[in-house]
Amino acid sequence: MSGFIYSVTLEVLSRYREKAEAVLKAAVRLAARNRERGASPGDFEFRELVRELREAGIEYNPSSLLTRLERDYGIIERTLRTSTQKWWRFRSLEEVVMALKDFSGGGGEVDEVADPEEALLELKVRLVDIDSTISRLKALAQKGRLGRREREELKKIVMNELTEAVRVLKEVEEYGAERFADFGVKVRLAIKLAMRAAAPSVKGNELELALDTIARTVR
Q: Fewer CB atoms inside 10 Å of the end CB: C or N, the chain?
């Protein structure tokens, strides 16, 4: 297993050690139960995670670590937030499980940067956060004709996030690692969604020209 989630999970385990291992193992156990039931809005919920940790004899508030797992590393993503519940799901439960096994089996010693160039690309891919961009573009694409504020939001996404994503994609493709193939698929999907969102509202302006340029770049 050598996927992106596997690699960043090992990075988290190497940096935060016992706390990260305890939280991830508890969350994995909950994910297995909740997926078997099939009716939960995510893999685990904050309060049940705290209970799971306490039952294992660990008094620890995982809130700060969960924020890092979501925002900094992309290992989990929020699926529901209400006044009483906070749910997350693993982006790849299988890769997290494998990383936990390898980390424990290796006694906690992890070769953090075997290939500096590839490690740097991983960081760039993670920081682009293409999943978040896709989610926002899907919402805009479903609206039909956009209002002024929504057009401005689309323009910012195209000029900043999509432009940066394509730049990183070019570096990834030049490097040639197959493990980043999913990133390329997602970048191209984001461009299609942006075109779909722009089509009914903005014709012949700088946004359309920017989208055409970006699309040609990644063909």
A: C
